[in-house]
Structure formats: structure tokens, C-alpha cells
Amino acid sequence: MGNNNWVSHISIENVSFGYHNQKVIENLNLKVNKGEIVVIIGPSGCGKTSLLNLLNGYLLPQSGAVQMNGLIRTVHQHGSLFPWLTVNENIGIGLRHLKSQRTQQKAIQDMLELINMEGFEDHYPHQLSGGMKQRVELGRVLAGDADIILMDEPFSSLDYQARLKMRRELIGLLAKRPKTVIMVTHDIEEAVQIADRILVLTKRPSMVCAELDVNVAHPRHISDPDLIKIADNVLHELGL
Amino acid sequence: MKKFSVPLLLPLFTISVILIIWQCISYFEVFPDYAFPTLNLVLLSFAEELSSLRLVNDTIASLWRVIIGFLLSATVAIPLGLYFGHRKALRQAFIPTLNFFRFLSPLAWIPFAILWFHIGDKPAVFLIFLATFFPLCLSVISSVATIPDIYFRVAKEYHYKGSELLLKITLPAILPQLISALRICYGISWIVIVAAEMVGCQDGLGYGIWDARNALRLDTAVCYMITIGILGMTIDRVFLQFTKAKNIKWGYGK
């Protein structure tokens, strides 16, 4: 459920992390304000997913501190819907905290309407297209009382047209249900279309090499000169 | 007029061909009568066994042993497999032992079964238990161990714990593989019951075949063999229906 008094923010201070003797992230600092959409971009294998795993607690930093003020939900790179549950039931997982069946059903119905999946409530994930599955994933995290949403390349498995559509839908959904979002992607176009702020990471060991604010109003068109300029800056920071 | 579908006609065609070959072998006397009963003799034997109720009683006795042995095995193997599947150390400790026993033919246990349980239902049930427990347990362990980690991550985020995690995440995630394993193990049960009843029982389909052999009535033996095949196929169709359930179908492709 949407919570108007949410106070979430994220703070990462001097975080370092590595596997065995290989440093993946070194002295990373990041503060995310409530309601902000931060997109992290970096070279392949730089540790973007490791960073998300540090944020949602699957990994522990070797040094430094991660502070997450609020309930976290994750949208995974490869679909994480339960294949044995219907669309209705998958979204219902996000509403397990609601005691009343009637309230839960009402919230599911609202979410189905919001994600444009009315009429598909009894379908199973294998009966849906890639874009529909991602909409249900988003519905599941947005339906709950999460304050922070972590997204690990959520649209990478979709075709180009579906990706364009999903970006628009995500912005629309977040306008109706505001959350703090950290998204990891390798798609610069996606980053400039969605982000309030883009963080560019270096190669391993990862550090933030640039922070770029995207002060362009939504809906953002990829041909917007300001967005093209920011995308050029990202490419420059990546050494491309 | 109602049309027959191809999936129904094809097996009927195959069965017809087998019956024709059978009749040809009998007609041309490739084997002597006592070693290769004719179709007519087998049908007569069916009528005889059914009218004396012997076939019915033997079928009930075998079904009872298979069901009890198989249920006992599933009741122990599935929870144990679920528990071991979640724990790497236990898997490492027990999988070699489970594999060792899986490769031992259940027939090797027949002398022990008779010495420990004498004759009757118990040795047969014990042999079915042994024959199905190890493959079923190993299959469940392997299914649990290969559940995509992503499901457990989501479950953790949404606070699934303990029995709820087991019943709402782990069990449904392995259900397609579990049903396949149950089908295979059920097939093993039918193979074993025949052998077990040949030596440790005074009734049942396996005993019926053994008794017919001793009386040189291969027509009766064939009638019992056909009964075993039909029963096996019928119960397998029941398992097959489970795979068509909407919340399980995902595991068998579209």
C-alpha cells in the first residue's frame, strides 16, 4: 500500500567488498534521497549486481556501512515470479501483511488495474509475454508496503519495443506509487530515460567515477538533446 | 457419427498388429502349444480365472501390497529428501550411501525379507519400500537442490519461513519432478511385487504367475501378465492427470 509518510533513504559509506582476494567494490559512497530514482551504470562485470546484493542484505560488506531506512523489495534480472501461482496470487505475495482477505483482494484488483493486467488474473507466468511478466513483477513489489525498490536490469530480457514501453510504464507507476528506486542497468538510453541521477562506476574495483543529474521532465523522449548530451557524458565517463 | 482421434487409433493399431503377430506365431506353430499359448487359450483362461474370482483376489492382494509399500516409501522418502535437499552437509554425507543402496537390486533382499518377515504381505511390502525409497529420496534431494535460488531470495524478502517456506515454495517448486519420480518409482513397485510374490506369498499376481508356471499353464501366466500391464497403465494414467493441473503444467513446458 502507498504510504505518504515514508522516510526511506539509503546510505552507503566507504563500502568495500570482494570475492576471495579479488576486490570488487572499493570505498564506495552513496546517498539516495527518499523518492529518488538512481540508476547505476558501469562496465560489464564491474560489480553492479554485487552492489545490489549488498543493499538487500544477501552479501555483507568487508568494510564500511550500508544503511537502508525502509522495507526493501527487489525486481530481479531474470523473472522471479513463482510459476505455480497465478498473476493474482503472485501479486498477492506482496500483500501478505494484510490480514483481511477482502482488503487483500481489493488491493490486488487495484494493482491489476494499475499495471494494465485486468483479465489476466488467473493466468500463470508461462502463459504471459516477457513484458507482461515484468509488469506483474513490478505489480508485486509496488503492491506491498515497500519503501525501497532495487532493480537488477529488469528489462534486459525484453525486446527493444517492449523495453521502451516498460520504461514509460515504470515512470507512470512510480508517479502513482512513489518509491525510492535504485536500478542497475547496462543500457545508457534506459538510464537517461528513467533516472533522476545516474551513477557511473569504474571497472573493478568499482568506484563512483561520475554522478550526473538528469533534470529533464517526464515523459522523456530519447531524441531530446539534453538526454543525448547526458548519454554522451556517460559514454565519455565509461571511456567509450 | 463421432470421429475417432488419431491418438486413440494409433495405439489400437499397434495392439492389433501385436495380436496378429501372436496369432501367426500360434498358427504356424513356431513354438509348441505348451510354450506359447494361443490367444483363444488366454481368453478362456481369463474367463476361468475371473469366474473363480482368483484373478480378482490376486489383483486386490497385489494392489494392497503395492499401495502400502509405495505409500510408506513416499511418506518417508519425500520429507527426508526435502530436509536433506536444503542442507548441503547432509547431502554430502548421505548421497553416497543412498546411491549405494539404490544400486542394490531389491531382489537381493528377498532372503532377508523372508527371514525377517516370514511369508505374507510384510516381505513384499518391505521389498517395495526398499525398491522405491532410495530412488525417490535421491530424486527429491536433487530436485530441491536445483530449485533456482531466486525463488528463495523472493521468499526471504516476503518473510516465508519454516513450514510455510516448505509447503508454499519448496514443495510446489519440485512438484513436476516429484510427480515424474513417483511415476517411475510406482513402475518399479509393479516390477518388484511380481518377483516378491513369487517367493514370499501365497496369493497375488506374482504368485499367480508362479503357480501357473508350476502347473505348466502358461495361458494363465499370460492372463496374469496382461492384468499386471493393464493395471500399471491405468494407475500411470492417474499420475499423468496430475501433470495436467494448471499449477503443475509449467514444469512440463507449454
Automatic annotation (TrEMBL), chain A:
Protein name: ATP-binding cassette domain-containing protein
GO molecular function: ATP binding; ATP hydrolysis activity
Cited SMART domains: AAA (SM00382)
PANTHER family: ALIPHATIC SULFONATES IMPORT ATP-BINDING PROTEIN SSUB, TAURINE IMPORT ATP-BINDING PROTEIN-RELATED
Domain of life per record: Bacteria
Keywords: ATP-binding, Nucleotide-binding, Transport
InterPro entries: AAA+_ATPase, ABC_transporter-like_ATP-bd, ABC_transporter-like_CS, ABC_transporter_ATP-bind, P-loop_NTPase
Domain ABC transporter: 10-228
TrEMBL record, chain B:
Membrane topology of the entry: Multi-pass membrane protein
Pfam families: BPD_transp_1
InterPro entries to which the protein is assigned, alphabetical: MetI-like, MetI-like_sf
Gene Ontology CC entries for this record: plasma membrane
Residues of the ABC transmembrane type-1 domain: 59-239
Membrane-spanning ranges: 7-28, 63-85, 97-119, 125-152, 173-196, 216-240
Keywords linked to the UniProt accession: Cell membrane, Membrane, Transmembrane, Transmembrane helix, Transport
Main localization (coarse): membrane
Cell compartment(s), UniProt: Cell membrane
GO biological process terms, semicolon-separated: alkanesulfonate transmembrane transport
Family the UniProt entry places it in: Belongs to the binding-protein-dependent transport system permease family.
Protein name: ABC transporter permease subunit
Top-level taxonomy: Bacteria, Pseudomonadati, Bacteroidota, Sphingobacteriia, Sphingobacteriales
